[in-house]
Amino acid sequence: MKRFGRMGAMFALTLSMVMLGACGNNNTGNTATTGNQATEAPAVANAGNTKEAKDITLGFSQVGAESGWRSANTKSIQDSAKETGYTLKFSDAQQKQENQIKAIRSFIQQKVDVIAFSPVVESGWDTVLKEAKDAGIPVVLTDRAVDSKDTSLYITFLGSDFVEEGRKAGQWLSDQYKDASEDINIVELQGTTGSAPANDRMEGFAEVIKTNPHLKVIASQTGDFTRAKGKEVMQAFLKAHKDIDVLYAHNDDMALGAIQAIEAAGLKPGEDIKIISVDAVKDGMQAASEGKINFIVECNPMLGPQLMEIVQNVVDGKSVEARIVTEESTFTSEQAKEALPSRPY
Amino acid sequence: MGKIYKHHLFWPLSVLAALLLFNLFYSPDFFSITMHDGHLYGSLIDILNFGAPLILVAIGMTLVVATKGIDLSVGSIVAISGAIACLTISKGADQNVMGLILTSVLIAVGLSLFLGAWNGLLVSVGGIQPIIATLILMVAGRGIAQLVTGGQIITVTSAKYAYLGSGSLATLPFSIFVVAAVLVIALLLTRKTALGLFIESVGCNPSASLMSGIRANGVILSVYVFCGLCAGIAGLLLSSNVSSADGNNAGLWYELDAILAVVIGGTSLNGGRFYLTGTVIGALIIQTLTTTIYMIGVPPEITLVVKAFVVLAVCLIQSDSFWAVFASRWKTRHYPGEKEGIHHVS
């Protein structure tokens, strides 16, 4: 029995080695042919377009599906990949950095043409990005940035400017209360601690409201971008502070949770407590059109088409700008009511 | 006096009292309870309402731990149960029909019973170590929940479903009554029938219990089914509280909080004796701590550190070896034999 086990192990080992070898050969064969194509192409066909759309493989590692925004983002990328005919290797990191690093490593092993990902957190990416660079695979950051000092590790960062979103939110509030004679108490529901949108939306907001001495953030706590946490934290805020005038939530889901807490406290969201939120997902826009959210700063998740354009440019060897900002607008309650029927997500 | 000190609820209760006392000094508003449209409103009520799902999960976990097992999959069952209930309701034409709500609740409860039985079978019949057997569902369950929700957050607009988790009965949150009912049933079953004894004996020594005529496998299977049921009900409460199902985040890390509540409550992870009331106090300590942290405005960056320190303190206070170290230090006379005893224990 024991002997058989050992034999079996040996057999398995040999088999796996053979297969690994085969895979290795296969891959080198592939790269060789693509390499040939790349060198031959300029001579034969017109410059640039060396790869057919169906030959381009994009590895994309998503943060997770933590919010409606994220789901819309995922859908946009999947749809536009289908439209352009690229092969999309999609991986969901379930909000864990280690999953994302694993996914990127597997993309490197699979020798995809371009790797795109939305980093779960800002820091700790240097090693894996270096591996991608060494393998000669260009990396595109989408939606969230990394704090890496070496900007040569990635080609470009496509996404919203979160600081600007924070500023827009702060600006609206500043305008609303520019004639205020007494203190306006603001509570803030932060996103996941340490994430780029949470840090930047807080920073941009603080930067603008600093100019008005009456605007004061009296409490700020993380709601992890989720409804349940948003509700729980808001309920505690309502108990701890009797005179909250404004709520600034870093995303719609937390604002929606907080609205339930405010209603449970017998107050009217949007009137007794003004609510500012970021994202503009469907449920959030719905609440805004009902007057429960006063102001929403849009954070556009439809990155798909722009991402595919970048992928094409990168594969063609064209230069890509180091920072590409998505187009975004803002909505007041009235504007939300008008825009709601035509929103794609 | 010595007897009170020795009682298994002494330390959990004093920790809870200490937390409340801290709040009394720091924010006196903590204890204010007012009436708001026919229901009570205040931080204490919030703690009970938000703590309800955790208490439920921890009750189920206590019985599993008593059989020397552990159930890591409760968080995932919470997510699945909430997801399937919300999905069923969102498919209905009129979300407020009582039949639809009942169907969805029954489907969710049935599914969580099945998932509990799956864990139980793996542990009892399959003979897999509990931590591994339930780890399977912990990992796979999140995926199942996301499959059910399609990666989206399902929002329901059913007032009747929302009643489960955020409605109130006789001025108190409805969820408290659900918890009370489950607790009473668990207490009656384990303390008024021989079942409690069976569970404890299986936890101490499964083979010896089998020899003395207890069907160890049956007992183990039933505690996992019960644990699944508790997690399923908790999932219903959680999702109904925010009227939406979030496959990704609902019940995330619940298993760890539940195990912590069980341990704070005085039940040993080595199986055997278990204390359901202690577990309830343990869960309340965790929820009170969370609410306190929000109320006093601890910066989010150090929230977890503060929590960790309080939990560390609670566990050290309850550790006999920890006290023994102090006792031997303070004592002036040392006997060699006694010292050996202490070393043996630790």
TrEMBL record, chain A:
Family annotation (SUPFAM superfamilies): Periplasmic binding protein-like I
Q: Which GO terms describe its cellular component?
A: cell envelope
> Which GO terms fall under molecular function for this chain's record?
carbohydrate binding
In its UniProt entry, what is this protein called? Substrate-binding domain-containing protein
Q: Where is the Periplasmic binding protein domain?
A: 59-318
Where is coiled-coil annotated? none
The family database entries (Pfam families) matched by this protein are listed as: Peripla_BP_4 (PF13407)
Keywords from the named record = Signal
Q: Does the keyword Cell wall biogenesis/degradation apply?
A: no
Q: What lineage is on file?
A: Bacteria, Bacillati, Bacillota, Bacilli, Bacillales
Quick one: where is this thing mainly located? other
Q: Where can this protein be found?
A: Cell envelope
- Annotated family: Belongs to the bacterial solute-binding protein 2 family.
Q: Where is the signal peptide?
A: 1-21
**Entry's PANTHER family?**
D-ALLOSE-BINDING PERIPLASMIC PROTEIN-RELATED (PTHR46847), GALACTOFURANOSE-BINDING PROTEIN YTFQ (PTHR46847:SF3)
On whether Chaperone is a keyword of this UniProt record, the answer is no
TrEMBL record, chain B:
Instruction: List the Pfam families hit by this protein, alphabetically.
Output: BPD_transp_2
Key words of the record: Cell membrane, Membrane, Transmembrane, Transmembrane helix
Q: How does it sit in the membrane?
A: Multi-pass membrane protein
Transmembrane regions:
9-27, 47-65, 72-90, 96-114, 161-189, 219-238, 250-267, 274-296, 302-326
| Superkingdom of this protein's organism | Bacteria
Q: Does the keyword Phosphoprotein apply?
A: no
* Predominant subcellular localization, coarse grouping: membrane
Q: Which CDD domains match?
A: TM_PBP1_transp_AraH_like
Q: Tell me a Gene Ontology molecular-function term this record carries.
A: transmembrane transporter activity
Q: Which compartment or compartments is the protein found in?
A: Cell membrane
The terms describing its cellular component in GO are: plasma membrane
The cross-references to InterPro entries, in alphabetical order and at most eight, read:
ABC_transp_permease
Q: What is this protein called?
A: ABC transporter permease
> Could you tell me which species this protein originates from?
Paenibacillus monticola
